[in-house]
Structure to design on (214 residues):
């Protein structure tokens, strides 16, 4: 995912005011400090990645050797909760070799220490996707009162996970105000599904449904 020129000098993903800002700072840091160093710096304790099976990011990233050239990426869209504490960003990426490209999806959570990503996934595409000059931001409605949870059936990940715990092959999460919820599942063959639901003021609408081949 890539280097994006960031106007505010010294701004880090943890301190960034929006998830788009956090994504841009994260991408820039990958170019300046190293790809895996940037991932380690911004990951939540229970963040997950896919190889294509699910792995704890903390285990996958530990002592990982930096590639010669870092992946580059650009946020093109952000779907956020009404309260602004959860966002799902997406956009194009280009691998460090310049030959492989695709689409990324990152789930960000905003806590007392700023923005941290908890889910990072990519999907290869046949052609390189174009980057938007101004990312589209779609915020959940703040009107009405969400009834129940965005996704009631899928179990949650343990939070925080035990140091030696194995990650489940499924997970879910939601914002504190219940206006945004997501889930994901990895099949036995490595196929991964990711879904995102957003409150419209009257009901939950599914705004993302990805099925990614291993």
């Amino acid at each position: 995912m890539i280097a994006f020129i960031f106007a505010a000098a010294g701004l880090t993903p943890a301190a960034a005011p929006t998830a788009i800002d956090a994504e841009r700072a994260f991408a820039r840091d990958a170019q300046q400090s190293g790809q895996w160093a940037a991932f380690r710096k911004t990951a939540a304790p229970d963040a997950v990645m896919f190889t294509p099976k699910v792995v704890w990011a903390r285990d996958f990233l530990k002592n990982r050797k930096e590639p010669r050239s870092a992946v580059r990426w650009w946020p093109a869209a952000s779907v956020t909760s009404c309260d602004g504490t959860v966002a799902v960003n997406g956009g194009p990426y280009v691998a460090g070799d310049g030959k492989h490209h695709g689409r990324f999806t990152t789930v960000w959570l905003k806590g007392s220490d700023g923005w941290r990503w908890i889910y990072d996934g990519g999907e290869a595409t046949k052609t390189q996707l174009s980057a938007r000059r101004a990312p589209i931001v779609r915020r959940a409605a703040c009107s009405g009162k969400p009834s129940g949870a965005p996704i009631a059936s899928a179990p949650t990940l343990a939070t925080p996970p035990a140091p030696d715990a194995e990650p489940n092959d499924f997970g879910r999460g939601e914002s504190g105000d219940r206006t945004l919820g997501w889930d994901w599942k990895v099949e036995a063959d490595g196929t991964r599904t990711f879904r995102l639901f957003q409150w419209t003021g009257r009901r939950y609408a599914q705004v993302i449904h990805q099925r990614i081949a291993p």
Q: What stands out?
A: The first strand starts at residue 43 and ends at 50. Confidence is low (pLDDT under 50) at residues 1-11.
